[in-house]
Amino acid sequence: MALTKRQKQVLDFIGSYREDNGISPSYEEIARNLDLASIATVHKHISALEAKKYVNRNHNQSRSIEITQRYQQEQSRGRFEASLEVPVLGSIAAGYPVQHYTDQRDTVSFADFIGHKETFALRVRGSSMVDDHICEGDMILVETVKSISEVRDGMIVVALVRGVETTLKRYHREPGGMVRLQPANSEMSPIRLHAHEVEVQGRLLAVLRKY
Predict the structure, then answer these.
(1) 128-176: per-residue pLDDT in tens?
(2) Domain of residue 129, CATH code
(3) Does residue 5 carry a catalytic annotation?
(4) Which of the residue ranges 83-87, 141-145, 148-152, 195-199 would you say has the lowest mean pLDDT?
(5) Secondary structure of the chain: what % helix, strand, coil (to 5)?
(6) Domain match, 120 and 204 both
């Protein structure tokens, strides 16, 4: 269940207070530090956090609020995802010049691409996809395909051919149960095979190039 902004503030304050002091804050300290109107308001937020399984408390003891493992896991995941974000400062022209970077504050999160067991990386060899700007030496991020129904015509895929060799190509279905693996290089011919000779192992997520 999602937290309200105020519930998140209360929870974060309890977590940081316990980390700094080794004990939980009192209700009075929570109210004072977060400018809450009354102790009753603190009770309301703590009850909501307890119902959502973010805290436990012993009603017969003071300073008895305990942070649950759920909160700790979400904090760790949040720190991990934040470390995989970089700011997006605007746009840049690859043709005619445009206005300089804006003051816009946005981020791109690499957690969208990595950190999942279904994602893996491969180093590109050869130039068969150069017209799609995938060059030798690039690293590609690939998402595992569990079913051929996930693959759309024209999608760039990692295909295992005849159980022997893998290749990166655009996937196209053709009549008669045939498959065309189309390179993005005008000097190369497509590979045409029966569908049973091709196993799609993954689809392209991103291309990484280091200069």
Answers:
(1) 999 999 998 898 988 888 889 899 999 999 999 988 889 999 999 999 9
(2) 2.10.109.10
(3) no
(4) 83-87
(5) 30, 30, 40
(6) yes
- Greatest C-alpha distance within the chain: 79
Quick check: is 171 in a domain? yes
Q: Is 128 a catalytic residue?
A: yes
Catalytic position from the list 8, 26, 128, 146: 128
Q: What is the pLDDT of residues 3-58, one digit of tens each?
A: 788 888 898 898 888 888 888 898 899 999 998 888 899 889 989 888 888 888 87
Both tokens of 189, joined, read 């011919």
Yes or no: say if 32 and 92 are a contact pair by the CB < 8 Å rule: no
pLDDT at 80: 47
Tokens, residue 8? 């998140």
Number of domains in the chain: 2
Do the domain assignments include residue 17? yes
Residues belonging to the chain? 211
Q: Which of 44, 169, 189, 210 is catalytic?
A: 169
Residue 37, both tokens: 């109107």
Classified as helix, coil or strand, 87 is: strand
